[in-house]
Please model this.
Amino acid sequence: MTRDDRQADAGYHTNRIGKEGLIPKGGRAWRYVPLVIALAAASPYAQPASTSHSKEYVTTLASDRFEGRLAGSNGERLASEYIASQLQRIGAKPLPGHTDFRIPFAFTAGTRDGGSWVGAGKTTSRFDQRKDVQALSFSDNGDVADAPVVFAGYGIVVPETQNFGYDSYATLDVKDKVVLVLRYFPEDADTQTKGILARYADLRYKAMAARQRGAKAMLVVTGPHSPNAGETIPMSFDTALSGSGIVAASISASVADSMFRQLNDPAKTLEAAQTSLDSANPHVAGFAMPNVAVSIHTAVVREKRTANNLVAYLPATGSVSGVPKPWIAVGAHYDHLGRGENGNSLAEKSEVGTIHHGADDNASGTAAVLGVAEALASGQRRRNVLIALWSGEELGLLGSTAFVNAPPIPLDQLEAYVNFDMVGRMQDNKLTVQATGSSPVWPRVLEQANVAAGFDLLAQEDPYQPTDVASFNQSGVPCINVFTGTHTDYHKPSDTADKIDYEDLDRVVTFAATIVGRVGAAADAPQFTKVEQKTESGSRAGVRLFTGTIPDYSTEVKGLLLSGVIGGGPAEQAGLQKGDVIVEIAGQTITNIYDYTYALEVLKIGEPVKVVYQRSGERREATLTPSARK
Ligand SMILES: [Zn+2]
Model:
């Protein structure tokens, strides 16, 4: 599964559990006591393989030889060859019209600035140091010569549908001009307003707003009242293959100041401009900057790589003519984080740069897909069973997105998709099934399959999950994701094969094979239900705030149990350590991760707060000073 920075504290929350935790939406948990085990043990559709290969699959995929299976790496290539050989052994075929299981896709594996510069004004010299100018990772590569400049405040446009009037461009004409905007959002607004503005303060969103109004380029400066004041923005990891349609760069305070100075008005400074905007009064506007002209050159170097999805199928055993939607699919991502080089790693300080084995994430899911395929290979199949192993999931669902964007079989012929992401670390017999809101058939199907399986089943309706199921939901395909829950080895090198519970993994395989068998044999294809995406809470406002805590999601301790702290971060500096349980911060009681996320929103960067925590049963206090996230 992929990480998502929408969570509150500096991206160190796995959004896997992020929004809902293990609590089913609507408060409903399905728990069926397996009273009829003896009767229901045999399913007519799935014949579990007599000898399970799960351990062999996981141990091989998570071995050092595959180097953490980073998309586009040699380790990923070796893993794809191994999986291809297993698909062959199982008897799966390349898709109709294909001769190979591999379906390659290209992506951007990294970006760097290859020499951007800004010339502010005809008379001043050119700024070309990275401390003064950096292209934004999504910028087009291009040149702008001597263009007029408009200062557009925070550059935020809140859509009218939000019933909240805020449009930085309302009174400005920026056509064919360069817009200069402040990073982030008004600093002194109340929490609720900040929450709304923060949602539209993403730099990509600001760039889009500027482009839609005809601007030639967008320059971003971090105001003197904001975190990281005056600094340029480091190039972020961005997997887009090309630019966003506008030249966009961040500039330092010195570059911005040199532009403001040319206004020859001592009252007009960057600081004064920010101060007037910081109350978020929607009637305070930006202004044109007469006599100021800038030239911009942006050079984003995008390193292209190719990764491989593996796609195979087990043909239906009879004719599919007259069968509605004659395909069903199972899939999992097989890529992982390599040595953690792309910023998704949660490795402890001592193990940074070492192989992230990804046994649970997601050698376990890969093993489950192969296991389900093997179970279905020997039985009768009314529909074709598509078997997919995705790459690039950890970099942002790249493989499954490439698949649905250029589907090798028509997606309207696909009746359902079953995904596995982290299914090897079951705790207390709990099995989570996500995205059940994507079709009305799922509750019944799961309930039936669970009669024999006997899991403590937790259902989550939300299909907008940080895993490949999201790509299929977006394409209108009924789908579910199977998940045994997260743990303290998540996205760390210590996610190793010896920690997998293979017996429970095989129970998951049997359960899923039953589901795929039943749905695949049904006369009617399941109906798709579009679930509305919940608007995010205001937690983006807290994204800039960094406390350096690594919460442990796998326990039900009252408070926030830390599975670690980030080296050199505020929590470590406050003396907190692994195993501590935070029970209070800034006077707010913390009983769970949600309380903590909420509490973070009222903290301020640089303002010390009291933290109360338990260590070995002893109550302690510390002072923590949140810092700004870089
Ligand atoms: Zn992951």
